[in-house]
Amino acid sequence: MIKSMTGYGVASTDIAGGKYTVEIKSLNSKFLELNLKLPKAYSEKEFFLRNECNRLIERGKATVSIINENSSVEAKSGAINHELLKFYYKELKQTATALGEDSSNLLSLTLGLPEVIKFDEAAISEEEWKSVLDVFYQAIQNFQNFRETEGKELEKDLILRIQNILAYLEEIEVHEPKRVPVFRERLDNYLKDAVGKEMVDYNRLEQELIYFVDKFDITEEKVRLRTHCSYFIQTLEQKDASGKKLGFISQEIGREVNTMGSKANDANIQKLVVGMKEELEKIKEQLLNVL
């Protein structure tokens, strides 16, 4: 079973008269790119939450937000840093005077500058933290369920693409036996035109045909291609299936398809190989979103 890197999960609860919501969103990425948004009161819990996100989300560009609405964790009284206020006010007044600008609203402007007013948030209780953590894990579970649902849709599409490649292979096997007679006729006509029918060395002609059959034989490529496709499907069905492993298998499929194309020496087979490559590109695009 595969999972999508795209996911969404949300959960909320009421705690001590306030509502807490945990929201998790992710998109595809080679590694875990985590954006953790927490209330200021939860700063000391950030390290723990990051470790849990690394363990549970694994990969993807993820945003995890903990939002408290009307919470009991409210700001206490604000304290004014008078020295910093005086410094900012003096600097702004001197600048306003130098520029000839109005300085009537400098006090309100100064009060909005960083660190001039500092608010202290109350620390959360252990009971409250446990409740928030329960909501976090519930959101993670909803997030994982979403990933699994999306993964099932991806799996259906990937299986369809592999089946299409195998269908093209069956068509190639229909055209493959026709190559030798066509090549024999082409070579025979060329020799007759070049040296005359009486001068054609048919023993040499047979040797060239044997060389052609050996050089352009695709039996091994067909066997390996079927093996790789079968392994791809088996890996999809494994519990620990991963996008990286499936990506490696798709590379092996691509090698066999490319080799078949280079050995084809037949327009019909070349067209079918192009169809295989198109299906393989779609597989690779889908694998970018597989966990």
Which structural category do the helix and sheet elements fall into?
alpha+beta
Uncertain ranges = 71-76
Strand content: 15-25%
Largest beta sheet: what is the strand line-up? 1-2-4-3
Describe this protein's structure.
Helices cover 61% and strands 16% of the residues. With 291 residues, it is an alpha+beta fold. The strands form two sheets. The chain has a four-stranded mixed beta sheet with strand order 1-2-4-3. β3 (32-37), α1 (46-57) and β4 form a beta-alpha-beta unit. The radius of gyration is 34 Å and the shape is elongated.
Q: How would you summarize what this structure contains?
A:
With 291 residues, the protein is an alpha+beta fold.
Keywords:
single chain, 291 residues, alpha+beta, 4-stranded mixed sheet, two-stranded antiparallel sheet
Present the secondary structure layout.
Layout: E1 7-15, E2 18-27, E3 32-37, H1 46-57, E4 60-69, E5 75-80, H2 82-99, H3 106-111, E6 117-121, H4 126-175, H5 179-195, H6 202-215, H7 219-237, H8 243-263, H9 267-287
Parallel strand pairs: 3-4
Antiparallel strand pairs: 1-2, 2-4, 5-6
Helix pairs in contact: 4-7, 4-9, 5-6, 7-8, 8-9
